[in-house]
Specification:
The chain is α/β, with parallel strands linked by helices and 184 residues long. It has a single domain, classed as 3-Layer(aba) Sandwich (Rossmann fold). Helices cover 30% and strands 27% of the residues. The strands form two sheets. It has a five-stranded parallel β-sheet with strand order 3-2-4-5-6. Helix 2 links the parallel strand 2 and strand 3. The chain starts with a strand and ends in an 8-residue tail after the last strand.
């Protein structure tokens, strides 16, 4: 099984700096902005983006963490017991511009679940999406507003994001997943 590193620590740092600049440019009134990271790796990415925005624009942006465990549409089919993490939204989201942050955009189902979870908490004026990797294969009509890297991939490949805060290293790798006897 060959693993190919597609983003190094420096690539991730540069990419997050670029995305932070794009967020500042698109959101003229960043005082109404809030970043919300999806557990697990979206949370540290959101915190890094907020730190970059503070460095570049001089404004401290609130950062929240969102758990989508009970909003997933595949729990019964996967026969999984969700590992519930804490949702922590630091302020009322009504009327805010929310930038939802995740590591990999794939089918769009996790993002749909996150939007459902957010709207249960209030009525944001706007929800934007920032992802480190967009790998394609959408099953829902969802697209990211801010993309670190477009990485077209096969459904038989996995893209793994590792971050210092959760994994002890910053890198993004792609590798083949085992194929069963039926070729699935």
């Amino acid at each position: 099984m060959s693993i190919k590193v597609i983003m190094t620590q420096e690539d991730i740092r540069r990419t997050l700096a670029r995305i932070a600049h794009e967020i500042i440019e698109r959101n003229k009134v960043i005082e109404h902005l809030m970043l919300v990271g999806m557990h697990t790796r979206g949370v540290p990415l959101a915190k890094r983006l907020a730190a970059n925005i503070e460095d570049f624009a001089g404004l401290k942006i609130p950062v929240g963490a969102l758990d989508i465990s009970f909003y997933r549409d595949d729990l019964s089919s996967l026969n999984l017991q969700p590992v519930v993490k804490r949702t922590d939204i630091p302020a009322n989201i009504d009327g805010k511009s929310i930038v939802l942050v995740d590591d990999v955009l794939y089918t769009g189902r996790s993002i749909r679940a996150a939007m459902d979870a957010l709207t249960d908490l209030g009525r944001p004026q706007l929800i934007q999406l920032a992802v480190l990797i967009d790998r394609g294969h959408r099953e829902l009509p969802i697209r990211a507003d801010y993309v670190g890297k477009n990485m077209p991939s096969s459904r038989h490949e996995e893209i793994q994001v590792k971050l210092e805060e959760t994994d002890g290293i910053d890198e993004v790798a792609i590798f083949p997943m085992p194929v069963d006897k039926e070729g699935k």
